[in-house]
């Protein structure tokens, strides 16, 4: 039934109680209204779920004025409870049905906060209720609250049938929220031959099962069938295929990196119960719920017969200590659990983004995140304890504090790390210069190794490891003495994701090797200068690269030059300006046309000042379709687009990957074990790619590099996304 303009105006916000009251008041009494999926079309698939179960307790949340409940009632299903938060419509429905359908119940109730005991219903029937809560402007908060309530009031073995248009944001929520412990089926609802509806309705059925079990989705949506909206149907089919790949990976036995939400949904079983020897890796924190994201490991002590000091504790590992055997290996982590005397230990690993944050801020940020991971101990009333390994910084010397109109406040500091394990080859007892962005809660944007030398006796970077004993003596002096005797070692990469960027060049190793042999230069563009560590390393490591850095903030160039030894020459230049405009203009320039047959490299390594998009790196407009299309044109016949990605939620990460897949034929990923960074490699064609011989390509790249990089180790973690 069509609505009038007045009715349309009343429902500008589908989540507003007042708007719904106004809508139903304007419609008047005694008239049913169906947004989509009329009874004749849904009768057969719905009754197939209820066959022989006339005594079933049925809940219809967000019932509105639909005739769905009365149709079921008249077929013998008497135990139906209808809820809606509009008093206007509940009063109207009571007047219409109280006498003729006396056993049917009506309640004024918010479907996101229902006053029913756990496990009250055998069957939940949602027809457009979830869709109404999932207004794109509102986000997923109300939808998640409703689904949590629906799952709570449904009995084990009960069914939840949801009639929906399956828009991407709605379907994504359903697929993720019912991933663990639910058996899911989806089918399209047939339309009347005369129907000219622009949208296809789907029925998604979830059966509540054992927590932690992952089932493949059964799809009855056929790609060869005719639907009233084929684009919509194909999008659903594609989403189901992707979701089933995720579910298959959970069943493959590999060590999955879970989100906190996954664990809350039962991905590893009941979190309230200790499972001796259980160990799971996870990410804590998402956009809007915390200041930071954290990599963590949940571990239940193997021997639960011991006397524990704590039923659950949090152990924080600073970045400087994260690579030590005690914290990086599974065997070492179990030793930490044992020494901590905790029945469950949550080990949290800090990375570069947390380096300058106050530890009290970290603890406050973590507290609500770890609360859901606490097992049930009725007799335990003490708060969960926080333990921490020392941060590894022995001495800190602030060199400069500067504020830029573009980047905001920055700090340049020198730090000396403690010798925590007696291994002089590790980070311990070495001096580093760090660039910190205060706008991102103390993000360590760059970290460079410092070398001490006398002005009259400069040490060549190729022989820096040949005088270990003299270095040990100089390191014991700490950070005192003339700053003129310190220089940045440009053969060292302080960021692990920078190493991954270098290793990923293995994908085009043959093209790089051929260019070096023929004396050709390889055009390399880096968007984002930072402290200049990456371009300086590339200049020394691969001398046949022509490097152009695009940097928006002139203050960054000044800081990089003054404190980090950055310098320009014929091989390395800086263009001050907007990176997106630079790529767009050069993608269509005459210069790009002349070099259309050459391999090119484009690296996007930019921090975001606006975290509202869910991206810490890069800014959201660098993963918009417009920029990605420009980047594809910029690379022309081939080459690599390399993006340093830090997403604050799995949904945002999947959105970025999906956009890249839509533009580029080839997509690869390197996920860093010790960091939240993920490096993505995209190419418009296979022309220069070493897809079938990556081991040989890694060896070939390593032979070209002038500085040592563990190429083979990183390339083992390379995953093909498309």
From TrEMBL:
Gene3D superfamilies xrefs: Vaccinia Virus protein VP39
GO MF annotations, alphabetized: S-adenosylmethionine-dependent methyltransferase activity
Location of the Methyltransferase type domain: 61-162
Pfam families: Methyltransf_11
Keyword set includes Ubl conjugation: no
Any single biological process term in GO: methylation
Keyword field: Methyltransferase, Multifunctional enzyme, Transferase
Domain of life: Eukaryota
Signal sequence bounds: none
Database matches in InterPro entries: Lys/N-term_MeTrsfase_sf, Methyltransf_11, SAM-dependent_MTases_sf
Region listing for Disordered, in residue ranges: 452-483
Membership in a protein family: Belongs to the methyltransferase superfamily.
UniProt protein name: Methyltransferase type 11 domain-containing protein
Naturally occurring in which organism (per UniProt): Triticum urartu (Red wild einkorn)
């Amino acid at each position: 039934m069509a609505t009038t303009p007045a009715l349309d105006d009343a429902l500008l916000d589908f989540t507003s109680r007042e708007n719904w009251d106004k809508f139903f008041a304007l419609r008047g009494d005694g008239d049913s209204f169906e947004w989509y999926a009329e009874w004749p079309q849904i009768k057969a698939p719905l009754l197939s779920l209820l066959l022989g179960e006339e005594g079933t307790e049925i809940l219809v949340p967000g019932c509105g004025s639909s005739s769905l409940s009365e149709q079921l009632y008249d077929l013998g299903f008497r135990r139906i409870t209808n809820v809606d938060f509009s008093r206007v419509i509940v009063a109207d429905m009571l007047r219409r049905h109280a006498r003729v359908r006396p056993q049917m119940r009506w309640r004024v109730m918010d479907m996101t906060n229902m006053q029913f005991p756990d496990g009250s219903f055998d069957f939940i029937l949602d027809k457009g209720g979830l869709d109404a809560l999932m207004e794109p402007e509102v986000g997923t908060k109300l939808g998640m609250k409703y689904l949590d309530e629906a799952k709570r009031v449904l009995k084990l073995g009960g069914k939840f049938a949801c009639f929906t248009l399956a828009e991407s944001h709605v379907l994504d929520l359903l697929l993720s929220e019912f991933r663990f412990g639910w058996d899911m089926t989806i089918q399209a609802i047939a339309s009347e031959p005369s129907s000219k509806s622009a949208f296809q309705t789907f029925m998604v059925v979830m059966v509540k099962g054992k927590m932690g079990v992952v089932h493949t989705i059964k799809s009855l949506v056929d790609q060869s069938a005719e639907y009233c909206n084929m684009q919509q149907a194909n999008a659903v089919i594609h989403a189901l295929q992707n979701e089933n790949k995720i579910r298959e990976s959970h069943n493959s036995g590999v060590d999955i990196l879970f989100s906190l939400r996954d664990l809350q949904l039962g991905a590893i079983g009941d979190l309230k119960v200790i499972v001796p020897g259980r160990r799971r890796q996870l990410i804590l924190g998402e956009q809007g719920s915390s200041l930071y994201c954290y990599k963590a490991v949940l571990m239940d002590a193997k021997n639960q017969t011991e006397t524990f000091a704590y039923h659950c504790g949090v152990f924080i590992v600073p970045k400087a200590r994260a690579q030590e055997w005690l914290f990086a290996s599974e065997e070492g982590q179990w030793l930490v659990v044992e020494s901590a005397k905790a029945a469950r230990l949550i080990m949290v690993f800090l990375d570069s983004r947390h380096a300058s944050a106050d530890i009290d801020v970290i603890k406050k940020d973590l507290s609500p995140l770890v609360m859901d991971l606490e097992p049930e101990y009725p007799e335990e009333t003490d708060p969960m304890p926080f333990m921490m390994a020392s941060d590894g910084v022995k001495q800190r010397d602030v060199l400069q504090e500067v504020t830029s109109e573009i980047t905001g406040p920055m700090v340049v500091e020198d730090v000396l790390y403690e010798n925590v394990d007696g291994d002089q080859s590790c980070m311990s007892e070495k001096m580093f210069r760090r660039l910190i962005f205060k706008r991102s809660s103390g993000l360590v944007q760059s970290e460079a190794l410092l070398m001490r030398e006398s002005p009259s006796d400069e040490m060549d970077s190729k022989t820096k490891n040949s005088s270990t004993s003299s270095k040990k003596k100089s390191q014991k002096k700490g950070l005192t003495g003339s700053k003129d005797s310190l220089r940045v070692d440009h053969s060292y990469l302080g960021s692990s994701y920078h190493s991954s960027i270098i290793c990923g060049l293995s994908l085009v190793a043959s093209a790089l090797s051929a260019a070096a042999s023929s004396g050709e230069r390889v055009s390399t563009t880096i968007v984002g200068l930072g402290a200049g560590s990456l371009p300086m390393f590339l200049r020394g490591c691969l001398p046949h690269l022509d490097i152009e850095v695009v940097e928006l903030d002139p203050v960054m160039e000044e800081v990089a030059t003054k404190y980090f030894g950055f310098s320009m020459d014929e091989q390395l230049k800086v263009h001050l300006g907007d990176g997106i405009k630079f790529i767009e203009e050069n993608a269509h320039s005459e210069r790009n046309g002349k070099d259309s047959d050459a391999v090119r490299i484009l690296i996007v390594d930019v921090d975001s000042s606006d975290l509202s998009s869910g991206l810490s790196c890069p800014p959201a407009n660098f993963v918009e379709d417009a920029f990605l299309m420009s980047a594809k044109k910029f690379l022309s016949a081939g080459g690599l687009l390399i993006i340093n990605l830090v997403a604050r939620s799995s949904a945002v990460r999947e959105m970025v990957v999906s956009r890249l897949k839509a533009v580029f034929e080839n997509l690869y990923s390197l996920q860093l074990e010790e960091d939240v960074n993920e490096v993505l490699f995209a190419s418009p064609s296979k022309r220069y790619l070493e897809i079938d011989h990556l081991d040989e390509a890694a060896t070939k790249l390593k032979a070209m590099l002038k500085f040592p990089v563990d190429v083979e180790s990183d390339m083992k973690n390379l995953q093909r996304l498309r």
